[in-house]
Each structure stands twice: as C-alpha cells, then as structure tokens.
Amino acid sequence: MALGDGATWNESLPDNDTDLVRGDDYQRDLRVGVRSRMAHEHLWPSSQTGTAQAGYHKWVTFQPATTNPSDLIAGTTAGAISFVSSAGYQMLVADSAGRNVQVTYTGGLHGAGIHMSGQTKGGMAYAAGATTAGWSVVGIGTTNDIMYSVNGTAPGWISRADFGTAFTGGSGIVAVGDVTSGTWNSSIGTNRVLSVAISSGAVTAAKIGSGAVTNGHIGTVLGGWTDLSLGSATTGSGTATTDMLLCAFGTFNGFIKGYTPAGTQRAYNGDAGGGGIMMPVKSGNTWTMTCAGGGFVAAYTIALGAGL
After folding, report:
1. Which residues of 81-109 are buried (b: 16+ CB within 10 A; e: fewer)?
2. Which of 12, 83, 89, 251 has fewest C-beta within 10 Å?
3. pLDDT tens sequence across 108-157
4. Domains in the chain, please, with CATH?
5. Residue 248: how many CB atoms within 10 A of its CB?
C-alpha cells in the first residue's frame, strides 16, 4: 500500500512534519480513498469532465441493527431512517418519533403496517382495479348484511331482503354473516347454476326445518324411454351407462328373471299366464334377463336422475 492509492485512511496525516513536496500525493490519496469507498454503492468514476451522474446511488446496503438506531436522528431534521433488523433481517423504517414500522416479512410486504385512508375497524380491503389503481376499503355493514360482488363490481354490503334482486343474473362471490334470525329472500336466475358437485362425505350433517321449503322444484328425474328391441328373443343383456329402470314383459308361459350385476338375481315373475318385471340397475353394472318358456314381447329402459 503506497501513498496515493487510497487504501489506508489516516486522518492524522499530513501533519506539520510532512514535507510539502508530498502534498500532491496526500491530496491524490484522499481523492482515491473517498472514491474507492463511495464507489461500493455510488456511481463514482476515477475521472470525469462534468458532474454527470457521479454520486448517484447504485443500491443501498443496510447493516443489521438490534435496536432502532435513533442516534442517527437525534440532533438532525431527518424525518425518518431505514434500517434492517438483525431479528430475521427484515426491513424497517423509523420515524422521527422513534416508531419502528416493519416493511417486509419473510420475502413479502408486512401487512400490519399498511394504512389506507377512510378505513374503519372491521372493514375489508380489495383491489380497486388495474395494477396501478391500488387498494380500496369497504367499511363495515349493519347487522345481518351480506357482502357481495357481481360481475367484477366493487364489493359492498346489501340487506338480505335485497339480495335476491342483486343476484338474479350474473356471477360473483358472497360472504354471508349471521343468518340465524330474520327473513331470507333470494333467487338465482334461470340456468345460472350449470354444474354443481358435492363430494362424497362433504356434508356430514344437514337439516332443513319443517316448512323451510313451501314450493320447491327439482328438474327432470326420468329420462326418455329406450326400446331394447329384443323381439321374441329369450335372453337380453347389456351394461348400464346411467342409473336406470329396466322393464320387460313376455309371452304366455314366459317366466322372466332379471340379474344385475351378472349372476345376481334381482327380479322374477313366474306367472304362467305371462308377466313382466321392473328392475333397477346401477350405472356401470351389467344386467341380464331371461324369458324361459316363451319369448319377450317388449323390453325398455328409462334413465333415472336425468335432470339432477
């Protein structure tokens, strides 16, 4: 390390015993020493014809601090400082009153310190729109109100009496609060629910009180008839593609037996004057019918739960 390279830092030199002829070396050493240190986080070239961007920050590095470095604020007019806590290395901002506001939390923003104007305890924050639109707050509602949003509109509160009108069309999300008392009036427009599936075991206990439904309707339960076209055959078989009822009747002296799955008898009619059977078949199961002593006159299937 030679004088002039700025590697060492000694504020006691030059002194009164330093040769004047070395003054330029000490001046150069000071300049190089300042630049080499500031260049860690600043744009600071070794030579420059004008001010340009010299001195601008490239980035900022914080040393971990165990406490609020309030000594950096004391005696100055600084409004706030930023520092990194050594507890988990989180970013904090300390204001001039010594209050620490945590900015980051495990790789993300720390939500507890976010403040939005117009907020009320119990309100809810939501995205106001585009990325640059920021966040808005919807205040608290009144007892038994419902928070809803239809077709991407801003969420808001609505009374239960008005809820049906709001949701006769469109789509959205609903958060329901206390509905243990009062009147519930709602409707969902035609074809608004296209597909609903409830997994096995999803509902373990359910109850609809007496009089809860005064006028209800479930769509078509039975499908269309399908003629098996067995003619006068004595046997018929197949595999059900849906839950269904199988109906058949035979000629005089035709004793009909029905099996589902294969090998398990479920229906029998031994009327010597001819007769028929009606047998349920589960979707995916095989079925077989025999008509001993005669032949089939007709055989049909009809699907169950076609509109559910």
Report:
1. bebbbeeeebbbebeeeeeebbeeeeeee
2. 12
3. 767 665 666 666 666 777 777 665 556 777 877 777 787 777 666 778 88
4. 1-61 (no CATH), 64-113 (no CATH), 122-202 (no CATH), 222-304 (2.60.120)
5. 25
